[in-house]
Amino acid sequence: MDALRFWAARGADGFRLTSAKYLVEDAALTDEPANPNYSGDPGKYDSLSHPYTTNTEETHSLLQEFRTTLDEFAKDGDSYRLLLADVMDANVRQVVKYYSSNGTREADIVLNYDLLAMQGGGDKPGNKTFGRIQSWLDNLPDGKRANWMIGSESSPRVGGGLYARAASLLLLLLPGTPLAYYGDEIGMADVNGLSTSPMQWNNTDNAGFTDPGVAPWTPLPQNYSAVNVGTQKQDASSILSMFMAAAALRDEPAFQWGGFSNGLTSDSVLSFRREHAGATSYLVAANLGAVATTQDYTAAGFPAEGTVVLSTGMDRGKDEKLKLNALALQPGEAVVLSY
Q1: pTM of the model
Q2: What's the distance, CA 60 to chain centroid?
Q3: CB of 337 within 8 A of CB of 279?
Q4: Which long-range contacts (CB under 8 A, 24 or more apart) does 99-107 make?
């Protein structure tokens, strides 16, 4: 705990515990049992179940101690210290236990990887993506806030693909906390299979990340002269402009506090409504499929028309009225409509 106190006393606002489920193993070094659902090479990690080396009670006790230690600073009138847990477990019911166990608080945010590398275009991307969203919300403990990620240092980027803009729009407008991976806001893509290339700030040598003539640890893409913060700030149709507009929408009551429910999700289209009593309501619809779609939203209880607030291409007229009995979306296109 001394290490936490050391950095918190120096102003660290929060801490991230990576691969938290592995923190404490069984003290007796008990052998792991065979995995009854596995067939294949018996020397592989997945050939065993891992009740003695992952998600142990001792690990949860340790996180509770971390939380209690960080709370010492808030009690002294200092600012609250955030605790994030990166569990890295595919079982959502197991993951959400890291918010609290036995009624005792643990992490403030338990990282949700369910939307990583949301490429779209595959088999039933609309229904499958909505299913992952709803599963997380259904399993979230009472009083806890959801979080969403579409990129990380250990997964392929969505940037540069057809669905990058739609993915960022969804990230920002789902209920909860968006955790944006650096560069996703400008559509950065993987370089040589890596998602850890330097941030592209401008069109100068090394994209403004480091001094000219210095070779960065990982290479820059050839298109950084166009895909960079400086250039995109000057372009009203850029993904960065769209990202900033979507982020600004989070100030709206419907996105800040409002409810979330299915709009008219289909195999290709993910759609949801955000509503808050006494405030403007919104329909968010994204075509994650490979072909153009047209849907009748009035059949799902929406009004006859909606007003365009934002579109991924930044090419639909602001305040344009769209008929909701035949809302057409191109592959990779998403819209936000008020009603």
Answers
A1: 0.92
A2: 24
A3: no
A4: 99/140, 99/141, 99/144, 100/141, 101/60, 101/64, 102/60, 104/64, 104/67, 105/64, 105/67, 106/60, 106/63, 106/64, 106/66, 106/67, 107/17, 107/20, 107/63, 107/67, 107/83
**Using CA of residue 259, residue 262, residue 264, residue 265, what is the dihedral sign?**
positive
From 158, 148, 86, select the one nearest 272 (Cα to Cα): 148
Residues in the chain: 339
Q: Any idea what DSSP says for residue 151?
A: -
Residue 101: pLDDT over 90: no
The rounded percent of the chain whose pLDDT value lies above 70 is 99
Q: What are the residue ranges of helices labelled H in the chain? A: 2-9, 57-75, 92-95, 125-139, 164-173, 229-233, 239-249, 253-256
Span 4-62, pLDDT tens digits? 999 999 999 999 999 999 999 999 999 999 999 999 999 999 999 999 999 999 999 99
What confidence score (pLDDT) does residue 76 get? 67
Rg of the Cα trace of the chain? 22
Rounded-to-integer distance, Cα 239 and Cα 244, Å: 9
Q: Which residue has the tokens 């992490």?
A: 107
Q: CA 200 to CA 223: how far, in whole Å?
A: 10
Separation CA 110–CA 136 (nearest Å): 11
**Parallel, antiparallel or unpaired: strands 269-275 and 282-287:** antiparallel
pLDDT value at position 318? 83
Q: Are strands 334-338 and 305-311 parallel, antiparallel or unpaired?
A: antiparallel
Q: Examine the pLDDT at 255 and tell me if it is beyond 80.
A: yes
Inter-CA distances, 266 with 97, 124, 224, 283, Å: 31, 8, 36, 15
Please give the pLDDT value at position 319.
87
Q: Among candidates 205, 230, 201, 228, which has minimal Cα distance to 216?
A: 205
Q: Kindly state the tokens that stand for 186.
A: 């400008």
* Block residue for tokens 């250990």: 154
Question: What confidence tens digit (pLDDT) does each residue in 113-158 have?
Answer: 999 867 677 789 999 999 999 999 999 999 999 999 999 998 999 9
